[in-house]
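Re: the request from the purification team.
They wanted to know what the chain is likely to look like in 3D before they choose a buffer screen. I agreed to run a prediction and write the result into the notebook, where they can find it.
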Amino acid sequence: MYKELGAPTFFITMMCRPTWDEIKVELLAGQDSKDRPDLLGRVFELKNREMHSLVTAEDVMGRCNGYLSVRELQKRGLPHVHDIIFLHKDDAPRSAQEY
């Protein structure tokens, strides 16, 4: 992959937060977020898809040549994802100021 896409530009980690408003609103009285792993997973998936859409389709960071995504569960059972983003060489930041 390195030969085809070049060096990775960004390494992004996105973690699920049980205190997101989208999760709190859907909890019934007396429920805690740990009682609803289905809700945590669904909200996380929607937010992750939105982030991937912004990076890959809408090119908010620059033209995306490709990405690699790995999903894991934390020890507490919360999902998180690690993304490696490969930007086009003309759009990749070259200095600390550009980052």
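For the purification team: Residues 41 and 71 are 12 Å apart (CA to CA).
Please add any questions underneath this entry.
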